[in-house]
Design goal:
The relative contact order is 0.18. The protein starts with a helix and ends in an 18-residue tail after the last helix. It has one domain. Helix 1 packs across helix 2 and helix 1 crosses helix 3. The protein is elongated and about 60 Å long. With about 140 residues, the protein is mostly helical. The protein contains three helices and no strands.
Length: about 140
């Protein structure tokens, strides 16, 4: 994993955790322990989903841009399917507050995306690779 990718992952995770803790506090005030638990589950699900896909896409980028896109679409599809399974499993649960879970998940997803955008906008990544000092054999 390159330094820019690690920095983006760290910034997004910290921002998401911060907002998630605030959501957990609000969830605790609104619906007690079940609200806190719903927020914590949402934070874990969102963080795990995004961390896995960031690592998979970063590793695939080492192979080729085409493989990176396949990894991005594949992890996105897997996350949607896993979220559908989780939603159906916890549809009627009384273990945690579902509304707090949903709101926290949405807020955490938006914060993760904002963290990723900020990290890559502020990164000093070269768009064009500089040519070597010696040039290639066919260039003047």
């Amino acid at each position: 994993m390159q330094a820019d990718d690690v920095r983006a992952l760290r910034q997004s995770a910290v921002a998401t955790a911060t907002v998630g803790v605030l959501c957990a506090v609000v969830g605790g005030v609104v619906s007690g322990g079940k609200g806190v638990l719903g927020a914590v589950v949402a934070i874990l699900v969102v963080s795990l989903f995004f961390a896995i896909s960031t690592m998979a896409v970063t590793r695939a980028a080492r192979v080729s841009p085409q493989f990176m896109m396949i990894a991005a679409i594949g992890t996105y599809t897997a996350k949607i399917l896993a979220l559908a399974v989780l939603s159906s499993l916890f549809k009627d649960t009384t273990l945690f507050n579902g509304r707090v879970f949903g709101v926290t998940a949405i807020v955490c997803v938006l914060m993760w995306c904002a963290g990723q955008i900020r990290a890559f906008v502020t990164a000093r990544t070269l768009i064009v690779e500089p040519s070597s000092a010696h040039g290639s054999a066919g260039e003047p």
